[in-house]
Amino acid sequence: MATIGFEEKERVAGEAFRRLSGTVDEFEGYGHPHASRVARLSEALAASFRLSPADRSTLVVAALLHDLGEMSMNRDYIKGAGPLSGAERLDLARHPIIGEQEAARAGAERGAQLLVRWHHEWWNGSGYPDALRGEQIPLEARILRVADAYAALTDARPFRAAGTEAEARKHLTLWAGLEFDPQVVRAFLALEGLPELRSYAREAPAQADAPSEPATTGGMQEDSTGRSPTVREGGEEVRNDE
After folding, report:
1. Total domains present in the chain
2. pLDDT (tens digit, 9 = 90+) per residue, 154-165?
3. Which domain holds residue 91?
4. Which of 214, 34, 223 is nearest to 128 (CA)?
């Protein structure tokens, strides 16, 4: 995996954030670096949108710290194998706000704190915690939403195997305009040559089922990286919590 670059004045803090992200990955049960992968994908997308170096740096820090709130909450269900209950789902929806607070304590700048808060907002307004819609969501947060989803879908978790690159790309396409900013999805699908695009799936299934339509549970829609956590497939409840 490529190294995340930091400017000289940011290098010490950046390395500290990177070490912290590894601790979060371990807590969440990822078998491979997740947050640093999200950071590299986000950085590549930011470059395609010609964001300034300062904005790109802020986005990278937010990507490294985006799930810090989950580790701070320290709930057993976060990496459990079963579907989440309604109470657990509502509890887990607090993690972006807690993550914002924890990012502040870790020394991240205010811009990065807010991107952590908003990394589960949906393009159609069904996300959380603030139900922002469309361009109310900063571009950097929309980029982070797509990068996090792809990285999560293509890596294994304790409760499910990794999906293939083709499955993840199809998922992004089907949910563009709902969960994801369509323009960001198009830019993501145009990325080439990044090691972070490779799936950790051991083998592609003979025939992949189409990703399910976004479901609504308890007044809060489920997103592709799972923070509101179950989808129904074939009449059975399936854990969708990365």
Report:
1. 1
2. 999 877 889 999
3. 8-239
4. 223
